[in-house]
Amino acid sequence: MNRHLLSSADLTRDDVRMLLATATEMHEVQHRAVKKLPTLRGRTVINLFFEDSTRTRSSFEIAGKWMSADTINITGKGSSASKGESLRDTVRTIDAMSVDAIVIRHMASGAAHQVSQWVDASVINAGDGTHEHPTQALLDAYTIEQRLGDLDGARVAIVGDLTHSRVFRSNAITLRTLGAHVTLVAPPTLMPSGIASWAAADRLELTDDLDAVLASGPDAVMMLRVQRERMSGGFFPTAREYTVGFGLTRERLRALSDANPEAVICHPGPMNRGLEISADAADAAQSLVLDQVSAGVAVRMSVLYHLLAGEEGVA
Amino acid sequence: MSALLLTGATWYDEDGAASTGDVLLRDGVVAQTGSLDAPTGTETLDADGLTLLPGFVDLHTHLREPGREDVETIASGSRAAAVGGFTAVLAMANTNPVTDTAEAAERILDLGRAAGLVDVVPVGAVTKGLEGAELAELGLMHRSRAGTRVFSDDGHCVADGRVMRRALEYVRAFGGVVSQHSQDPTLAGPRACCHEGETSGRLGLPGWPAVAEASIIARDALLAEHTGSRVHVAHVSTAEGLDVVRWAKARGIAMTAEVTPHHLALGTDLLTTYDPVYKVNPPLRPSEDREALVEGLLDGTIDAIATDHAPHARHDKEHAFVDAAFGMLGLETAFAVVHDLLVSDGRLGWADLARLMSTGPARIAGLADHGHLVAPGAPANLVLVDPTATNRVNRDASQSLSRNTPWHGRSLTGAVHTTILRGRVTARGGEPTAC
Amino acid sequence: MTRADMTVPPGHPLDPSGRTVLTASDVSRALRRIAHEILEHNKGAEDLVLLGIPSRGVELAHRLAALVRDVEGTDVPVGSLDITMHRDDLRSQPTRAPMHTAIPQGGIDDKVVVLVDDVLYSGRTIRAALDALSDLGRPRAVRLAVLVDRGHRELPIRADHVGKNLPTSHSEKVQVRLAGFDGGEDVVRIAGGDTR
Description:
The structure holds 3 protein chains of 3 kinds.
Chain A: H1 13-29, E1 44-49, H2 54-66, E2 70-75, H3 87-95, E3 101-106, H4 111-118, E4 122-128, H5 134-148, E5 155-159, H6 166-177, E6 181-185, H7 195-202, E7 205-207, H8 210-215, E8 220-223, H9 239-246, H10 250-259, E9 264-266, H11 279-282, H12 289-308
Parallel strand pairs in A: 1-2, 1-3, 3-4, 5-6, 5-8, 6-7, 8-9
Chain B: E1 3-12, E2 18-26, E3 29-34, E4 43-46, E5 51-54, E6 56-61, H1 74-83, E7 86-91, H2 102-115, E8 119-122, H3 138-143, E9 150-151, H4 161-172, E10 177-180, E11 194-195, H5 198-203, E12 207-208, H6 210-227, E13 230-233, H7 239-250, E14 255-259, H8 261-265, H9 287-298, E15 304-305, H10 314-317, H11 334-343, H12 350-365, E16 382-392, E17 411-421, E18 424-428, E19 431-432
Parallel strand pairs in B: 1-4, 6-7, 7-8, 9-10, 10-13, 11-12, 13-14, 14-15
Antiparallel strand pairs in B: 1-2, 2-3, 5-16, 16-17, 17-18, 18-19
Helix pairs in contact in B: 1-2, 4-6, 6-7, 7-9
Chain C: E1 19-22, H1 24-42, E2 48-52, H2 56-72, E3 78-80, E4 112-120, H3 124-136, E5 141-149, E6 161-165, E7 172-177, H4 179-182, E8 187-192
Parallel strand pairs in C: 2-3, 2-4, 4-5, 5-6
Antiparallel strand pairs in C: 1-8, 7-8
């Protein structure tokens, strides 16, 4: 592993396996009275969030603190439109304080990659625009494997607004790295551009028929959040039409359970109950939504450990 | 008046036939060619091994003055142009304030003359303030000392069909031309920054589909036909757009087109690092488009190579890719890039190069003194180039006040040796002369 | 000083130039004696918890528990205590994935924890183990049982129960192979040393 985690493509299969194995051990810490490991004592981790996210930020913060690192949250100012400090100046100012890691969430795709060129600290991508969210993909894989075992050969469907989803992009990579079969389900307007050659290159299946996919009894169904604002971009006519075509309704939940009683349901959150996922599905026994949150801290502890604990400059 | 004798130079006629010999420049024109003795008091320049071309004419440059003198001025841009082998550049109107009045156009003309290194020809805006709604004072700009003939809202597309039609009709009266930045804003909005395709999909960058360019070119071709006027396509970047230009020309429509060196040589895959130095509008395209553009150069569909020189401050580029400013420098590297890419391997001949970088653009812009091949009586607006010189581009040595060049660190074969404006040397060995 | 042997994978070939210092029967006898000592010191098996330090310490802990069962007839809780996250030399090593920590059902509060490891060397592993224990609970006492003590302590740490004292030089390597973890027979060998 190199010293940054910018993209799920940075991780080999061995890297992912090691991160998940470590996360399994880290998960134990959550159940102890003393939720502390001394491993990253003296390391400084900055959570630099330009985009609001209570869930991811607190997950990284807790992960850092449980590893005994000094974690500090900084809210990044908006884009260049506000004519403020350039992004480079902002991060170099932070880097000048000799911090060990910068966990960055930004609304622009590629921000983490760019920042990694400008600083000495390790950079962890906590979500960059519609590009990637590597720790989310790791925690999704971890959560599914905790329930179903090895993902190698498993069948996973990813459903929803793929165009605007960094969770999809990272998951497609990590799931394939682990040997899973991945099927993408979305209306044509929400399939990313160039998806035909992309899917061929990465061996992803494509369809707009959610019912057919559910009837085939996949092992895991990953529902992605659909923003209601997408209606104004002409991506789909109404929320109702989206739900009828692509929502995990009560009826579809039943069809999934019939086809595969062991199938699990994931959602990265926050959920639009009633739009892409019904309340029944969100709260079903097969739903891993809360497990995903719990796994998030363990996975992030593992990532921080593997990037920061070792030899200076080498992981 | 001063005289300059170039000895041992090689030059080409319009069919590509070569001549080698001496060229005497006197009183701002080519006086004689052949095997000549230097008259007394004549400065001599050894041009052995060098190729003599008509001075380059850039149909598309951003000199940023007035408004952003921190990134470029007409003086610094003139230095960059002279060093790049240009004897005339068209300065785009998206300054601050916009060049949409006669006074603004004349001011730019005067600043260019004061710098004295290249003929700075102001481009007038098509619409007031580049807002795309009401026509700017096209006639007054034409009647001014600037004699404006080329109009453009570049930076923005004249998207409203009715406005574009009126502009074309209006400039027809004085043989003007509208240079269109072809980008349908409803298909490629202001955030679009990466060719729409697999790369933009994977990178999560807003896509800029080819159809957003081609559909405007098609509409403008039909409007040009309908109005009997001339239209010029700025920085064509796609195969689809180029095909429309080809169709329009076949149909007899007065449409011309330019291409930039960066759209010929650089591709979408460079965006995977999200380095904003590669952010430009229209965006870099995949290899299929680049190959089509080279085809277009060779078969005459494309009339000119233009730089779209776009200086930017570091603090305007060092943002997240989607937030960074669009544009690259181009004046100082244009010849080297084109030579390295197309002339050195023989795909493009010297006659073609002269047509694309000088004669063609001079004709489109209506510049009577530029674009003349070497012959007695021709105005001495010339450039001597060295086809064998190989240099590594160093952005810190740039004449431009800005540093946003995508070519930094690249080795290019072909260099401008000496630039001559009306018989006077304006740049030599990579340095502008004082004036 | 590094715990080189901790990272040696199961069944890794032995250095043929080394010499055997403990045969399988030596190991067996040593473990039996250690089991007796533990019981003697503790006056029985009550409140004992054996925690092996991965990797080979875990097998040793299980074998000691089996021996205790033979002698006392009681099942003593056995578990493992990984110390990777508590090492003091993290920054000078490539990062390794932690191994498994399994604390038995009854926990360690007010128990007599016997840490079990194969080789005692600088003492830093045991210091890390004490650190790790302190976050897991508060034992009444902590003891240390090791198969081999090779000397060269860098910290004031000592073993309560030692299978064999083996004076070594820094340039030598102590290699432990256990039937369960490595396959084959138990053996302890010393290899390397000054050949100049």
